[in-house]
Write a structure and sequence with these properties.
By secondary structure, this protein is of the alpha/beta class. A hairpin with a 3-residue loop joins strand 13 and strand 14. Helix 3 runs parallel beside helix 4, helix 3 packs across helix 11 and helix 8 runs parallel beside helix 10. The longest helix is centred in the N-terminal third of the chain and has 20 residues. The chain is globular and about 55 Å long. The structure holds iron/sulfur cluster (SF4). The site of iron/sulfur cluster has 11 residues, from loops.
Length: 443
């Protein structure tokens, strides 16, 4: 059996050890022995402030760094058949949930704006008629520069999208080429210009650091170019090269100056009125609060309803979704299966992770500690009846290492702790989740 590395050992390694986007990670999911009826899974849950997520797995090209569940240039009729399946699923899920309310919603993928305006009109109609999406709640949508056309932006505004998030990655053409995402600066600037003029309450720009040939100077150039458009949020993603991605197949490695690039980017944004919310997310001081316009959503406690192949759903005890793949063949097989499913198949959860009480607590700690807000000690104790120090004495190591401070009833990452969030996250995974992730065979 391999020994689990201690925090001290992990701190000697590269800081970028794993992105804790969700816990447990999808690669820890498995087929359930018996499918769970959704009606039973959701029966005991608080359904008054849910997160609704729709996954649209279509893009105009496959970026070399991307391990998301998506396909490129679907054949004629595929998007329509996919939306037929989403409609069947939304009806089945709505019936199983009974009375419920969404506090927030997001449309992601893939590139939702790869769809035509007619297809997007159908998307919104499905979400409103069958998934209970109300106008006025915070609603986010992802875009790419090539598909951010004026007509589509107007449609998104009209349909109540409050946050538009665009994947830029870099303003330097040679850098996006090394990422396997050729992108003409003229197309990019025209798209950002249209997006800024469309007047979404929140505009987010995604950038990546750590690609071949990138320097601190070129990274700061990209950041400065992004700020020209006045984004309320920026996500700065460290480059990870993952198996079965374009970069992974070519055997590329991320640059070894990622920490230096991160620090330069962070300092640049902090000096320009942005606050750091997590390792990746920076939000401008003037940005509206996340809860504005709807009931507030608590990511530690509230549920998530996912629609579409690749979308996850979370109840407090069970996380579930369709199967996961990164390679083209694996993704296509999952999509074919999703589209062929009869309506009653969507009334069950077939694949996912059943969280024990200990895993639910671990998830709560991870979701709290890796964000700037930190872990509220009283909230944690009120939520589960124990203190964090009884449940996770190992967090004391973070205090001793100066990665976390304790004060005003909270445990918070220090500046040094925040830049180590991708070390601390994986260190906190349970042995069982680690083992399942390690034995997972990616398709
Ligand atoms: S990074 Fe975005 S645009 Fe590129 S392939 Fe992945 S989902 Fe599509």
């Amino acid at each position: 059996m391999t020994a689990v590395p201690t925090l001290r050992e992990r701190l000697l390694e590269d800081p970028f050890q794993g992105y804790t986007y969700a816990y447990p990670h999808k690669t820890a999911y498995r087929h359930f022995d018996k499918p769970h009826p959704l009606r039973e899974l959701w029966a005991g849950e608080d359904k008054q402030s849910l997160f609704l997520y729709l996954h649209l797995p279509f893009c105009e090209m496959r970026c070399g760094f991307c391990n998301l569940f998506t396909t490129v240039n679907p054949q004629e009729g595929r998007v329509g058949r996919y939306l037929d399946a989403v409609e069947r699923q939304a009806e089945a899920v709505g019936e199983a949930l009974g009375a419920h309310r969404h506090a927030r919603a997001a449309i992601g993928g893939g590139t939702p704006t790869f769809l035509t305006t007619a297809e997007m009109a159908r998307v919104f109609s499905i979400l409103r008629r069958h998934a209970g999406l109300e106008k006025g709640i915070p609603l986010s949508c992802e875009l790419s520069p090539a598909t951010a056309e004026t007509e589509k932006l107007a449609q998104l505004r009209e349909e109540g999208v409050t946050r538009a998030s665009i994947g830029v990655q870099s303003f330097i053409e040679s850098e996006t080429r090394t990422l396997g995402r050729p992108q003409k600066p003229a197309v990019l600037h025209a798209a950002l210009d249209r997006l800024a003029k469309a007047g979404f309450p929140v505009m987010n720009i995604d950038l990546i650091y750590g690609m071949d040939g990138q320097t601190v100077a070129s990274w700061l150039c990209s950041l400065a170019a992004a700020l020209e458009y006045g984004p309320q949020e920026l996500f700065l993603y460290p480059l990870y090269v993952r198996p079965l991605t374009g970069l992974g197949r070519k055997g590329r490695d991320p640059s070894d100056i990622r920490l230096q690039l991160f620090r330069a980017g962070r300092d640049f944004l902090l000096k320009r009125g942005y606050r750091q919310i997590s390792l990746r997310l920076f939000r401008h001081e003037s940005c509206p609060n996340e809860g504005d316009g709807g009931a507030s959503y608590c990511c530690q406690e509230d549920g998530m309803v996912g629609l579409g192949a690749g979308a996850r759903s979370y109840t407090s005890k069970v996380h579930y979704c369709t199967e996961y793949a990164v390679g083209r063949v694996g993704i296509q097989a999952i999509l074919d299966d999703f589209v062929a499913r009869p309506a009653d198949h969507h009334s069950f959860a077939w694949y996912g992770y059943e969280l024990t009480a200990a895993e639910q607590k671990r998830r709560y700690i991870l979701k709290s500690l890796l964000r700037a807000d930190g872990l509220d000690e009283a909230d944690y104790a009120a939520w589960c009846g124990q203190t964090w120090s009884e449940d996770f004495p190992e967090l004391g190591d973070l205090l001793d290492s100066g990665l976390v401070v304790r004060g005003h009833g909270k445990l918070r990452l220090t500046l040094a702790g925040m830049e180590r969030a991708d070390t601390i996250g994986p260190w906190l995974y349970s042995a069982e989740v680690e083992a399942r992730m390690a034995e997972y065979e990616l398709a």
